[in-house]
Amino acid sequence: MTLNIASRNDIGELFCKGEGLEIGAGCLPTSVAKGSVIHFADKRTPDELRTYFSTNDIVNVQSLSVFEGQEFDFVIAHHVLEHSANVIQTLIHWISFVKDGGILFLSLPNRHITPDASRLLTPPTHFLLDYAYQITEDDYESREHICSFLWGWIDVGGLEGKSK
């Protein structure tokens, strides 16, 4: 049986109307409803994005801090939340940009088709403790997540036994 699942762009065009913010769009912004205005935020500068994606075809991006205090009809973030050191705090922050009745449109990668497949499933208590202890990207626990992620890429991603 084949499931007919709408793509991110189909969902964006249907539900993301008005003025919005997309976090981490890079070179693949989400399609939104015709006539909508969308702003882009990323932790990287435009030059860093060009280098990272090896293309000049990137969105006109600004730091998320530029948008502090503003509210939008929709906020989009695809494949961004999993990079957060403090998932709950990140969600609270993103929700602060959404107007009452607005849309927070997120997607996360399917761990079964990425090198993360070998990683242990993160228990909900882990997210609660990160929030309770106010973990940031600068904390040891956050850097340990990065090491675990890289280990998964080396072990399962086909890099095992390879050298530079």
UniProtKB/TrEMBL annotation:
GO terms for biological process: methylation. This is Methyltransferase domain-containing protein. Keywords: Methyltransferase, Transferase. SUPFAM superfamilies: S-adenosyl-L-methionine-dependent methyltransferases (SSF53335). GO terms for molecular function: methyltransferase activity. InterPro entries: SAM-dependent_MTases_sf. Gene3D superfamilies: Vaccinia Virus protein VP39. It comes from Trichlorobacter thiogenes.
